[in-house]
Amino acid sequence: MLMSLHTQVKWTMEVLYYGLTLQSDTDTVKLCVDIYTDWMMTLVSQKSSTPPPISRDPNLYVQRILRHLYILFLPRSGQVSPVYLSLCQQVLSSTQSLARESSMMSSETWQTLLHFLLRINHNLLAPPTPAGGLSDLSVAVLLEVWLLACSRCFPCRSLWQTFRQMFSSWRHQPAVVEQWSRVAAGLTSRLLPQMFGPSFPPFEVPDEDASLVPPDMEGERVSHTWFKFLHLFSNPVDLIGAAAGSSLDEDIQLPGIFFRAMRSVGELVYAFLGVTVRTSGQTEHLLPNTELGARSQSRDRLPSLGFSVSRSLFRDRLPSYGFSRPRSGSAPPTPVNFPTTPEAPPIKSSSPSRKQQTPSSHHWTSSSRLRFSCPPVSSAPRCPAHPLRCNTDSLLHLFGSWLFEAVLITSGKQADVTVMSDRWAAGRAEACGTLCRIFTCKKTGENIQSIYLSRFYLVLLRSLQDACPPVVVSVLLNSTHLFCCDLRGVNLLLPSFVSVLETVLLDRDLIRFKGLVSLVDLRRSSIFILLSLMPLPVQLGPAQIQNSVDLMMGCEDATAGNFLSYKLRLHSLLIGALQTETDTCNIQLLLAAILNVVHDSAAAEAPPPSPHPDQSRRSDHRNQEVQFRGTNGTSRTRTSTTQSEAAVLWVHVVHLLTQRLTSQWRNDSAVCLSALEVLGGLAKVEVQVEASERRRAVGSVCTYIVFQCGRPPPLHSRDLHSIIVAAFCCLNTWLTQNPDLLHQQECLLEVLEIVELGISGSRSRQDQNVVWKDDKDLNPASLRVKEAAEATLSCIMQVSGAGPDPSLRDNTLMLDDSSLKRSRYFVLEGSVILATLEPTPDQLDQEPSPSLLVILRGPPGHHSWTLQLHLLPKDARAIQTQAALIPRQPRLAAEDAGQRRSINHQLVLEHIERVPSVGADQSIPPLIRTGPAEDRQQLDHLRVTLKTQQEIEVQPWLSSHSVAMATCRPPSPISCFQVTRLFLSHLGFLTPESVKDPGVNSMQPALLSLDSSLPGFSESLRRLDQLPSRNSDCAFVFYVRAGQKTPREILGNVDKQTRVSGPFLDFLSSLGCPEEVGGASRSEFGAVLGDSGGGVFDGRRFVLKFADALTQITFIVPSSHTYTDWLKSFEEAGHTAASSSNQKRAETRSSEDIRFSQSVSSFFRSDSKLLIVWVERFEDIEKFPLTDLLLETRAQTETGSSNIQLIFIHPLKTGLFRICFLGNASTKLGLVVPLVNGMVTSRRSLGFLLTEMVSNCSRHCRLESDSAPPPHVRRKHLINDIILCYKSRCSEPAFYSALFQL
């Protein structure tokens, strides 16, 4: 029967209440629990079995049922049985279902339900109660139900206060901190979109954690609930005070709880900074697979304490900047959950992946005891903070007090033996790392309160002074940006950081830090800090480092020093780190820093430039064409009595690099390539050192090439040949920058032997054996190596003074119609096109002489000479007429007139008959004996004639006869010469062997004529002349003001000088000299600039041109004025070959538009697609409109955005510049140096390093791509095509006949 009266239900509930007090393993207690849980669900749905009084007023009876069920959770004597645990789980599960599903609960019922959960959790979790089997479930149900109450019936203030007081007493339970972390993360993921908008990176948490927050909780309730839940745990530092009076078991677990709480705080901080959290498994697919192994991300994605992060939306559009995975044996990434070590069993309530755990599945188990030890630090990637993140002061207002106290727990009154134990170091390290991350994420121009800065500096100084390994690791891993974010007074930390970096970078084993973090990542973080410290001594110079820092540290003997005093110490640290480091990527970073430091030191010591009117504003790296003369470079190799610091550093670095290159590094292709690039850059640094030092560097590069070429054939690969090609490029740089080296016979012979080795595969002189070149077989290491050696040979010839003339134009190259008809074209040795032109009579001098204009077009470029043939040397010949060369007839004496004197011409020796003959006289038979019969008759006739002549001459009347003597005069001078025939004859090409076809299809005769009358010949030559003989690259330069996001705004900055900063204009002047498009004239930078902000160099009329012997780089500064014309010109130029109408339209365009389209299109033909962006605010990097700019510049027509490389330059208040390099994807050839992401450089070195970077990026592209051959190879292929298309088909007689008809 159903109970229909209230009194019946009340009496029954009293009986059930008593039944709950019985032994838990009896069936009575189970039946009582089943009845109560069934009646509770009346608020969810009505059942027929429910008594009518309860159905009529369910809220009242549910409140009484909850008060009765509390008795079930009171402590019971004896062992807790599994039956009892299952009954408790049943009650908690029903309570959770009631809160989730009920829509009829009144506010009183909500209050009763929350009181019920608070009381049972206090019984289960309050000290001295140890952690039981229900702790995880009870805390999880309490927090979830409390969140539901906040969404439907917000708890009153007194209830919140009670909750906070009780919760503070439960913090010794591991389950409490774990469940609190889950709820805080879920609330934060819901709060961030409301605060920062949908564009802010979401705080990614597991689905089960995000589902804890009710979907209908919105608006202010989310923020109020988040704030109150955040402060439920109160200050985690209070756990240290509780450790003094705790039991042994609690004392063991408290350090781990403290660490987990600080990690949760750190996760919340990273969420507010815009750092998206992922587990290590989720980020595994983001790591590129390369030869160096799976790589982590760039400097701003350095390892963190315990969790990994994803890439931002902007970074996903570009290749990641990779690093190698830590070596085997390094610590694996630690998941987001509570830290575990082999000595400490994991907490079973939470797995690394946080799988779905619901009470209904009964998977809640008791937390095992945690024997805490310092957890390893993960090596997962980390992305930078989002531009929309909150201010630093706001984060410090929320979390600063907890974090500062957590780091300084060893400095207060509680610094007893318990506190000083290393067991608390992990929590301190997490707090210290979080603080470092907050301050390094300071926005550009943001002001931080002085109280926070002073406390932060005190935290760092204390942490570095204590030298606690986990804390030091945390500081280094999270301070990579500390010295490049414009923090006030941060440079005062230089001495402390230098000391710590010395302990890390100079120690090869790092025994103190093993097991805490991957040693490779620790060194990498230290290297990044070192990169930001290196320019400070030279930049700040005599500025004093106040001793107040040491006084604050309690040092009584504090002394003040200046920044310049740390210069040599930092140099020694950098060189020592390079000698100690073994990781590939770390070595490459150090190599990039070395070139920066050496050039900056040399530029700082260089005298100021003279105020010559024709001198450019650039002071340290002139952007002019290199003239290959013997006097070039003598000022740098002049011997000085005392070397400067820069010279000493240069010598030391060159010795170290060459020694390592030929020993330890020679098997690492990535390191070798970076070292060769740095060596090439060092060759361009202006220092005064002994010539022997430069000679030694060249010899080391030659030795390296010999070693690599001498490897066994199975070890030869494309990568090995790429390194050999790079070594030849490095050798070319040293020869062009130091031409005096070729004046030394030993150096010249060594270089020529290396060229021979590259071309033929072996050297003629090996040990004591000499092999003639005719006896050698051509077997080069590869075709690319052979071509690189040929380029080096051409470079040697250019250094000797036979370099190409860059000023040649179409009229000089004889490509106009009149010159083309009168010119003759030949092919020499199948690789060089020879053009000859004899000048017209009106072009001759007063005295005609054989003259010839000769142009040689070959793979190295085009060369021109004007030749004249004279009988006397040009220098010793005076101006004289042809008549002066006729000798005068001597006047005869009167008595000798009319007399003829007989002269006996003695053709043989006198008395020859008296000389006895020998057998050798008969070795040559007489002609009459050897000739044929016809010749004998002719000889007889000649003998008779001679005898008759002799008889006539001896007659007397002839001897007295007077003979009139006529003066002999030379013939009149001729004005027409066959100069081409003479020139070819003098060079030895007019021989039967040189003209005869060898009969091999792949070979051409040594001399071959070209038919210039064939259609398309002049156009083919023009294409050949337009192909650069040097590496030709192009880069775009943009200026982004603070807050700009659209391409129109960015392109309009350079229109006016008032819209850009002065350092930007200085930077432009350091890139190169202004050059007129389509012309060779160069102008003064200031005169061309005018009132423009750099937009005058947009490619319409002027560009910035950097050129040396091996490279030419064009810098274009796009502007809004040329935007429309730019697109139009490029589209028309791109469609001229496809449509005849477009071709006619292109012909009608002005020459200026044609030159402009050619200059802009050079960007798309270049090997390196590179954008240089000057940003006033560092946060704008993430918002840079890359895709829109690529669409507007049409750069995506030939390459995707993944191949675009961007160099962001951000000026700092110290006068230095922070570099952010995106797209520097580390491939099998390693990173591109010398500019790496996170580097800080000075104004003196910025232009030099940037031009080196553009050149090296282009070289990497050519080495890794089969479709990007070097310039001389492109010219060689085009020359072969011209020969095949336009060679003359005439016979040998016709060829000779044509020579005489000129």
Give structural notes.
Helix 25 packs antiparallel against helix 26. Residues 277-373, 412-419, 612-641, 802-811, 879-885, 1133-1167 and 1195-1200 have low confidence and may be disordered. The strands form 6 sheets. Strands 15-16-17-14-18-19-20-21 form an 8-stranded mixed sheet, sandwiched between helices. It has 47 helices and 21 strands. The chain is elongated and about 185 Å long. It has 1302 residues and is an alpha+beta fold. Residues 1021-1282 form the Rap-GAP domain.
Topology (elements, then pairings):
Blueprint: H1 6-19, H2 27-40, H3 52-56, H4 58-69, H5 82-101, H6 107-125, H7 135-152, H8 157-169, H9 174-196, H10 207-210, H11 220-230, H12 238-244, H13 248-272, E1 277-278, E2 289-290, E3 293-294, E4 308-309, H14 392-407, H15 417-420, H16 425-440, H17 450-466, H18 469-478, H19 494-505, H20 519-533, H21 536-540, E5 544-545, H22 548-552, E6 561-562, H23 567-580, H24 584-605, H25 645-661, H26 669-682, H27 691-709, H28 718-737, H29 745-760, E7 765-766, E8 769-770, H30 783-802, H31 817-822, E9 824-828, E10 832-837, E11 851-858, E12 861-868, H32 927-930, H33 933-953, H34 956-959, H35 979-986, H36 992-995, E13 1007-1010, H37 1017-1026, E14 1031-1040, H38 1047-1051, H39 1062-1071, E15 1073-1076, H40 1085-1089, E16 1102-1107, E17 1111-1116, H41 1123-1134, H42 1140-1148, H43 1151-1165, E18 1169-1175, H44 1186-1192, E19 1205-1211, E20 1217-1222, E21 1240-1241, H45 1243-1264, H46 1271-1286, H47 1292-1300
Helix pairs in contact: 2-4, 2-5, 4-6, 5-7, 6-7, 6-8, 7-9, 9-11, 9-13, 12-13, 13-14, 13-16, 14-16, 14-17, 16-17, 16-18, 18-20, 19-20, 19-23, 20-24, 23-24, 24-25, 24-26, 24-45, 25-26, 25-27, 26-28, 27-28, 27-29, 28-30, 29-30, 37-46, 39-45, 41-43
GO molecular function: GTPase activator activity
Biased composition (Basic and acidic residues): 614-624
Biased composition (Low complexity): 629-641
